[in-house]
Write a structure and sequence with these properties.
The chain contains six helices and 24 strands. With 401 residues, the protein is α+β, with helices and mostly antiparallel strands.
Length: 401
Amino acid sequence: MQDDSSSLQRRALPVGRQVRAVIIVAVITALLLLLWMALGRKSAHAADASAPATTPDQVKLSAEQLATLGTATVKTAHFHDAVIADGQIAVDADTTTQVFSPYSGRVVHVMAGIGDKVRSGAPLVSLDASENLDAQSALITALSQTRLARLVETRRHAAYDSHGGSLQDWQQAQADLTAAEAALSAARGRLRVLGSSDAQIQALEAAGAVSPTATINSPITGLVTDRQIGPGQIVQAGDSTAIFTVADLSTVWLLCAVRDVDAAAVAPGQVILIHVQALPGPDYRATVHSVGAEVDAVTHRVVVRATVANSDGRLKPAMLATSEIITSADSLAPGVPEAAIVREGDQAHVWIVRADGVLQERAIQTGRVSGPLTEVRQGLAAGERIVTSGSLFIDTAAQPD
């Protein structure tokens, strides 16, 4: 009997241990389950906090997310109607002179080249010319005859006063002097027509000697933009090709091509803002001088011309330019940066930042552009706060899953 009870006790001990083990496992399992549920709720809460709560037309962001967006308060700005056209800078034909040779002869020396700045009266070229020799000879002859006629008239006058000569002789001497003075004036005028200055004529009269070499001077102060002759070349008087072109570039022309559908809105006197692509910095301002009377049959453009001040000489002929011709008076309207506008086809909207931090989508109607701002004609008022950068991100976040 004792052996049987001892054997029963040995079999009962493992059962007690098994029960305790089961209890311990159950407790541990329950604790792990509770920990897992707590972590799950915390993760869900964190996910909810990080993900924006959205509807089709609004987005709720955290303060940290909102701080990453660019925002601004809508302000009013000046807007106007304008016609945009491309064009280029050109020489001012009203201040440009083509120089033709009044002489026929051989070029001796060229004193000015393309790009040189010359003053009015400065020598451009000298050449040997028979016309100059003939004109100088005529001047010297007329000057000599005038001096002789003046001397004869003085003597005849004195003889008449002393009753040693007749009135007729004195009157004839007066007529001869008048004719000689007329011939001298004509000789001087011919030299002026040929390009000689008064100082050159006076020097010739003082020297009393002729020279076949003639000098052609610049008629204006400006820049030599073209030269068609060289040393040793033969020049013909009356040739239709100018030997020099001198342009005063203190003013230049803007020639811009306006579409025929926009030409009716352009009129003389309107202000033009000119942006020259090769010159960074502020735009130039000018006024419309003339609007072309014809439409180009190929390009369907009308040439609009304006005169632009160019005292610093930075504007060069043939520079490309974009012109904005202002065709209406300024008016005030809300203006927003183009980056704040989300466009979908012909529709546009912005995101409004409400007082509670919620971003609300707002449909708008856009209009004219003035610098970096776009006019908002409907849907927005000055003083409202909008998102200026990150709008596309908000649009994506607002889309339903």
